[in-house]
């Protein structure tokens, strides 16, 4: 059991705890998540990993960014993809423009080489890009499959930020393209039946759930002023 991210930081979408406070208890907690992920992935079967939640504002985008940086620090080659195409946030986390991204690649108005952005943290980022009204069509396109498969050949980890499972069908569409899911749950913020429904939706489509992450638990004042985090391979 570990602590993670204040809600205020999550709302700002600009907080990279492992960069700003690399020796903090929070950063150590995320380090332990990475170790657990390595243990679960000892045979390398999880390369393209989707991170989703039940509802919005549960901390999945911030988790993806911090995970990616720590994986890179462990000498893994990592790319982050923002496939939350209706409400993208990854560009804000890494302070990039959202003008050109994966949507442009899928439309054919940009190449992967033009869209992928390098960071000072040793990871690559593919933001969402221009707005589109054809999200469902793009997520079901053959070209997206080709892009993800290409990245799986080039990178050790492809971390994909996706919409919440209960908001629309996008997350389920994406889950069919990946190797496993990390499910984020904000403590005491979502009704248990909704969480259960979200998990069962993934199971109905035979999507491997690698583990769950609990966020946003408010610690007592005398304790660390961070939030609670826990990773497990069973839900």
Structural features, described:
The chain is an alpha/beta fold and 235 residues long. 39% of the residues lie in helices and 18% in strands. A nine-stranded mixed β-sheet has the order 1-9-8-7-2-6-3-5-4, with helices on both faces. Helix 11 links the parallel strand 7 and strand 8. Helix 3 crosses helix 4.
Structure summary:
The chain is α/β, with parallel strands linked by helices and 235 residues long. 39% of the residues lie in helices and 18% in strands.
List the defining traits of the structure above.
single chain; 235 residues; alpha/beta; 9-stranded mixed sheet; 11 helices; 9 strands; 39% helix; 18% strand; globular; disordered N terminus; disordered C terminus
Secondary-structure class? alpha/beta
Order of strands in the sheet with the most strands?
1-9-8-7-2-6-3-5-4
Number of strands: 9
| Relative strand content | 15-25%
**Helical residue percent band:** 25-40%
SSE string, helices as H and strands as E = EHHHEHEHHHEEHHEHEHEE
Spans where pLDDT lies below 50 across 5 or more residues: 1-11, 221-235
Q: Summarize the biggest pleated sheet.
A: 9 strands, mixed
So how many helices? Answer: 11
- Molecular shape: globular
| Radius of gyration, CA atoms, in whole angstroms | 17 Å
- What distance lies between the first and last C-alpha atoms, to the nearest angstrom? 15 Å
Mean pLDDT: 85
């Amino acid at each position: 059991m570990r602590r993670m991210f204040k809600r205020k930081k999550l709302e700002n979408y600009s907080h990279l705890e492992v960069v700003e406070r690399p020796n903090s208890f929070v950063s150590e907690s995320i380090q332990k998540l990475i170790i657990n992920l390595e243990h679960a992935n000892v045979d390398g079967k999880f390369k393209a990993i989707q991170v989703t939640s039940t509802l919005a504002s549960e901390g999945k985008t911030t988790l993806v960014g911090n995970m990616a940086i720590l994986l890179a620090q462990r000498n893994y080659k990592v790319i982050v993809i923002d496939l939350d195409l209706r409400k993208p946030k990854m560009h804000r986390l890494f302070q990039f423009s959202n003008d050109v991204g994966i949507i442009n690649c899928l439309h054919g108005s940009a190449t992967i080489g033009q869209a992928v952005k390098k960071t000072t943290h040793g990871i690559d980022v593919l933001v969402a890009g221009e707005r589109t009204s054809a999200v469902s069509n793009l997520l079901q396109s053959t070209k997206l499959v080709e892009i993800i498969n290409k990245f799986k050949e080039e990178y050790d980890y492809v971390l994909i930020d996706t919409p919440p499972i209960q908001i629309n069908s996008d997350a389920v569409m994406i889950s069919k393209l990946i190797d496993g899911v990390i499910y984020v749950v904000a403590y005491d913020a979502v009704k248990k039946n909704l969480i259960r429904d979200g998990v069962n939706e993934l199971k109905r489509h035979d999507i491997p759930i690698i583990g769950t992450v609990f966020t946003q638990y408010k610690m007592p004042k005398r304790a660390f002023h961070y939030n609670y985090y826990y990773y497990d391979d069973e839900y």
